[in-house]
Design the sequence.
């Protein structure tokens, strides 16, 4: 702990001079002695020297090339940051808007898709946001962060290397917490099949690299590795599982089932169409495999009757029941 | 006389939701705002213990000052982590860390980063070239196109400022 009286600036400068001398090459025997004398001269000298030792041991623990690159990144100076923080008031935006000022850039928008609709949006830094059916997001870009708020539905993010220095974190938040991109591609969705059906949660699938997840009432992040998916509530993260290949099929307009229970499969199909699909419990556990085109969910339903012992009845276009054949 | 804790409790009750709102308007993120508001009060409580006579006449102005410092730190840390990951991704050979190694390394980087944040850009660069890359002051001078004497001055500034933060 530091003592109540801190070394004077003059003492610190003297310690700095000693460090510079050491940088110049090994100290001679005579210089070593002189340093020893200086240290024992006053308590504050020794105190300053202890700080110098702490500094050197700290620097010694930093890996050279990686450390240099990370630490030498461009920084916003504190005054600029103060201005940014003072200016960055979140405004609800109803349309794309771009505000450019000399020293900071802010870009906010919101985007949504209707049931059955999918849409891709290019973000200002070159990242790509794809919305699946019935989804809503806010997009907030500032000097400090690239930030997406997912209100409902499902999105895939493909991040690009940031165009701004210092590099801004890429964050997706939902009502349950925050996801930070560590790699370039991941999917976030409300309610992920295979996880705690009865509990409201957010699901995340890390595609090529990992993502960090932090439930909103937690301080620590949990890592979700590449090719894994996990669900989290505002309190906890459920243990990750390996991600099925089908997780990102929707981006290509496909629905992939691999030995999936019929009831789960139809719950997925239902996301892409208005109305209700009712599944008779007698056929709910039948298994289905295949690749289906999301563009035409009527066709998906019709094709079921050809491959499984089920009958599809349509009361109206909005009310479909699946019963034993 | 009220104890520091009860005094802070009153300030908390009166100003917590205001502070949280203020932080949210600055960071645009309700999670960060909640965390930072909490950290601000922890900081106030610690300072209050250390210094009985802390002036709480203008609680909001005081809270803003502390919260602002924490916010700057929060974003510095995030930008550090992002740079760390992007640097890892650029390595020619894949680099693997255990979660513990990664945590330890990031902690060290963060500590150094917070220190270096106090330095002017050129002093910081000289410092990194000399202390991390092991270049001599002459070599640094040549690389940056300035005199060795200038580098020496930058290094003295860097060392002095860093020691000041560490004593």
Sequence:
């Amino acid at each position: 702990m530091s003592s109540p009286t801190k070394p004077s600036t003059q003492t610190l400068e003297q310690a700095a001079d000693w460090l510079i001398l050491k940088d110049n090459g090994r100290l001679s025997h005579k210089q070593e002695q002189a340093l020893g004398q200086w240290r024992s001269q006053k308590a504050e000298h020794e105190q300053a020297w202890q700080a110098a030792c702490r500094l050197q041991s700290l620097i010694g623990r930093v890996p050279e090339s990686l450390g240099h690159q990370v630490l030498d990144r461009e920084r916003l100076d504190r005054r600029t940051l103060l201005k940014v923080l003072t200016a960055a008031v979140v405004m609800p935006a109803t349309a794309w808007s771009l505000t450019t000022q000399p020293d900071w850039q802010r870009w906010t928008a919101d985007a949504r898709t209707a049931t059955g609709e999918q849409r891709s949006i290019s973000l200002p830094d070159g990242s790509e946001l794809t919305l699946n059916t019935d989804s809503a997001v806010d997009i907030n870009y500032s000097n400090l962060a690239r930030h997406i708020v997912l209100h409902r539905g499902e999105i895939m993010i493909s991040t690009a290397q940031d165009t701004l220095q210092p590099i801004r974190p890429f964050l997706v938040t939902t009502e349950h917490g925050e996801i930070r991109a560590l790699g370039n591609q991941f999917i976030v969705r409300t309610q992920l099949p295979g996880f705690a059906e009865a509990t409201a949660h957010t699901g995340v699938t890390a595609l090529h690299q990992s993502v960090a997840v932090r439930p909103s009432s937690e301080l620590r992040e949990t890592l979700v590795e590449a090719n894994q998916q996990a669900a989290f509530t505002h309190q906890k993260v459920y243990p990750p599982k390996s991600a099925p290949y089908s997780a990102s099929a929707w981006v290509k307009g496909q629905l992939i089932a691999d030995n999936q229970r019929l009831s789960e499969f139809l719950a997925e199909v239902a996301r892409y169409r208005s109305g209700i699909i009712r599944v008779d419990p007698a056929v709910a556990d039948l298994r289905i495999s295949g690749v289906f085109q999301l563009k035409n969910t009527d066709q998906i339903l019709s094709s079921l009757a050809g491959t499984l012992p089920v009958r599809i009845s349509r009361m109206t276009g909005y009310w479909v029941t699946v019963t034993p054949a | 006389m009220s104890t520091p804790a009860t005094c802070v409790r009153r300030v908390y009750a009166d100003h917590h939701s205001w502070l949280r709102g203020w932080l949210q308007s600055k960071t645009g993120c309700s999670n960060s705002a909640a965390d930072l508001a909490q950290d601000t009060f922890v900081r106030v409580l610690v300072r209050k213990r250390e210094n009985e006579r802390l002036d709480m006449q203008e609680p909001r102005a005081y809270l803003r000052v502390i919260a602002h410092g924490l916010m700057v730190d929060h974003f510095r840390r995030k930008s550090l982590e992002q740079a760390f990951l992007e640097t890892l991704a650029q390595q020619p050979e894949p680099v693997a860390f255990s979660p513990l190694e990664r945590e330890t390394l990031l902690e060290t980087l963060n500590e150094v980063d917070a220190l270096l944040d106090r330095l002017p850009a050129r002093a910081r660069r000289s410092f990194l070239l000399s202390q991390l890359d092991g270049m001599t002051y002459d070599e640094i001078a040549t690389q940056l196109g300035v005199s060795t004497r200038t580098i020496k001055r930058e290094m003295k500034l860097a060392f002095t400022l860093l020691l000041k933060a560490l004593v």
Remarks:
- Helices of chain B lie at 4-27, 30-50, 59-90, 99-116, 121-131, 137-144, 148-166.
- The first helix of chain B runs from residue 4 to 27.
- Chain B touches chain A through 61 residues (CB under 8 Å).
- The mean pLDDT of chain B is 83.
